[in-house]
Design goal:
Layout (H helix, E strand, L loop, with lengths): L22 E7 L11 E4 L4 E6 L4 E6 L4 E7 L4 E7 L2 E6 L4 E6 L5 E6 L4 E7 L4 E6 L8 E6 L5 E5 L4 E6 L5 E6 L4 E6 L5 E6 L5 E7 L4 E6 L3 E6 L5 E6 L4 E7 L4 E6 L4 E5 L6 E5 L6 E5 L3 E6 L4 E6 L2
Antiparallel strand pairs: 1-28, 2-3, 3-4, 4-5, 6-7, 7-8, 8-9, 10-11, 11-12, 12-13, 14-15, 15-16, 16-17, 18-19, 19-20, 20-21, 22-23, 23-24, 24-25, 26-27, 27-28
């Protein structure tokens, strides 16, 4: 197979109760993807490509959206944990290499490799500020820390963290960063680009993990290991809603086109979808260990599924 979207019969998209779910529209194969391990991925609008952290292979997989197929495997990303994009520029965290890689989404050429603290995990990139951000888990010799880099010259600032960092996002103006901390479960707020600490917002569910933001409504969505999706006002830190989810979550995306939040849950393998405006929820079965997704605006959710050997494409419309 060449990696092109195939429309083979699959049980994905069906729920046990037969209730409404996202529609499965195909599968994109990734070389070496069957039974493998992946982490965070991202869609870049300029190149119209999807970049996926293939953790088990220490590679970044590249999918061409318009062709609907896998086009490249990029090596040299030790223990790759996540990828983020901004207008044709990609930043990747190398968890086993204590570094971040900055490269061009069109040419796929590396611009810079920058050292970080131990086990960089969550990330953000702001092209107009030439700013890269890495949330580092730390190890037995180094405490967790948040780091911001000037990508052009490597200058960096650091902020010590109160616990293990998970995912992070910025506000629309890229003046503030919001970071999930596992324990104590919270959203930490820091200013950009200097990482001045601004607030710590405790969450009513354990293990803050996946995170995304609705810029228009000023709402953060934090999926927690305790089995909840928590909605937080991004200006005040007020918890405005809590919804139960089916299990321990990972990657979380808000889709501005539909207004829905999608939470990937690796066990038993499903997507929990919640409409914050109505509270309506639905579950879409995917595959075991499918704990990571990529939102491809306006109406596609790429589920990275080892059981499918690559990407299970769902329609969010």
């Amino acid at each position: 197979m060449d990696g092109t979207i195939s429309h083979t019969q699959t049980n994905a998209g069906q729920t046990n109760s037969g209730a409404e779910s996202l529609k499965a529209v195909g599968v994109i194969e990734i070389p070496g993807g069957a039974g493998s391990e992946f982490d965070h991925g991202i869609f870049d609008a300029r190149s119209r490509r999807v970049f996926i952290a293939h953790t088990a292979r220490s590679t970044v997989e590249v999918i061409d959206l318009d062709a609907g197929r896998h086009i490249a495997t990029l090596p040299g990303f030790p223990g790759v944990a996540g990828a983020v994009a901004d207008d044709g520029e990609i930043l990747v965290t190398n968890r086993a290499g204590a570094s971040v890689t900055w490269f061009d989404a069109v040419t796929l050429r590396t611009k810079s490799l920058l050292p970080t603290g131990a086990r960089p995990n969550g990330a953000a990139i702001v092209k107009r500020l030439s700013l890269g951000i890495a949330a580092c888990i730390g190890d037995e010799t180094e405490a967790p820390k948040l780091q911001a880099f000037r990508l052009g010259n490597g200058y960096r600032v650091s902020l010590d963290l109160p616990g293990r960092p998970r995912w992070c996002v910025t506000d629309a103006a890229a003046e503030q960063l919001f970071l999930c901390i596992r324990d104590p479960s919270m959203i930490l707020v820091a200013s950009l680009p200097d990482l001045r600490p601004l607030a710590r917002w405790p969450l009513p569910s354990a293990g803050a993990h996946g995170l995304d933001i609705d810029h228009a409504r000023g709402r953060l969505y934090a999926a927690c290991d305790g089995g909840d999706l928590v909605e937080v006002d991004s200006r005040s830190g007020e918890v405005t809603n809590v919804w139960p989810i089916a299990g321990a979550p990972d990657v979380t995306f808000f889709n501005p086109a539909t207004g829905r939040v999608h939470v990937a849950i690796g066990e038993p393998g499903l997507i929990e979808t919640i409409d914050p405006r109505t509270g309506k929820a639905m579950r879409t079965m995917t595959g075991a260990d499918a704990h990571t997704t990529v939102l491809v605006p306006p109406d596609r959710l790429y589920v990275i599924s080892p059981a499918h050997g690559g990407v299970l494409v769902l329609s969010d419309s």
